[in-house]
Amino acid sequence: MVTYSVGGPRAISFINADLGSVFASSLRVVRPFIQSIGENPAPGDLIVDLGGDRLFPGLINAHDHLQLNGFRRLKYRVRYANVKDWIDDVSRRKFTDAELVECQSVPLRTRQVHGGLKNILSGVTTVAHHDPIPAALLARDFPTRVVANIGWAHSLAIDGEVRVQRSYRDSPTEWPWAIHAAEGVDLEATNEFDRLDALGCIGPNTLIVHGVGMTGAQQQRLVTAGGGLIWCPSSNLHLFGATPDITVLASMHRVALGTDSRMSGERDLLSELSVAQKVSELDSLALESMVTSDAARLLGLQDCGTLEPGARADLLILPARRPLTSSSRADIRLVMLNGQIRLGDTHYVPQLAPAQQCVELELDGHTKLMDRPLAIQLLHLEVRETGLDFLPANWRAA
Q1: Distance set, CA 313 to CA 39, 265, 338, 362, 371 (Å)
Q2: pLDDT score recorded for residue 390
């Protein structure tokens, strides 16, 4: 595998960048943070000319089940009225369906790393994992950042009212608290929100995941309480043929976008953005906010999702004039996490000099370069990521 030396000096100045609504064209990074916006490079900085390419904060995936992304998309009926019926259908086959058995036989840690890979390949530098969070997911070698300070319950149907209520009460009030609710189009799904409200679980830190069956009045109650919605439109459409109208909630910046998992959702967050654009009347700026600043606000992330001094140097570069809503992972030119390269193309990565190495790979038919320690970890995964090909014939030890 071809190797490149990357890493470079601690201070990096990106110039001639398209920063969107920011009235500036330069950004300076002193790892792991953004140091300044719109200022001239300092003496000794490594200067990277973006030539008008778009510079975004790293994307935030507000809802994923990391260990479920090696499964194919599943359903056994044309339409479901309630997610519990889908869960029952999958559960009845988990020990008899050869493909499900094979996927479950892969070690949990391996499946979680694969979920992290799915996210970083699509420019996601922060992901909210809706399951127990072992220490390994918070380790520095995990492909992407996982939100650590978050409370959650699965759902009323799975956990029961006592456990859900305890989970909410035991979660620190400054943490977001997420729960699958109103995930369906029947009356039972709609009534879940009111039941959560009666249990005292609708508050300023409440994040309703899916909310397909929520009424307009329930959405308003969520707004009044100060909570928000995590929207997973492709999963909703796949299972129920419907997704909530999030127009009002989005206008109040109370919506973040999530992928769910590949068992019901699209390939990654970029694909989810494309679906979101097709099923809503929202403009590109509103949709971009759902995977950056609005997601950070709802998840209580003070230093992510924005291009501001003091924020984490989580960066995504796309070609000039390329809308985020119509981008794919093949379009990505660079992804940085805490100012360190995770993935990029052969134009930018070699400019970001020494210290560590990257290795060459093919992603959806395009040559990319990946952080070498991450590439070594992923090369030996028992789960293959479709569209990702390492080149073992060209591998050579560092």
Answers
A1: 16, 29, 5, 26, 16
A2: 84
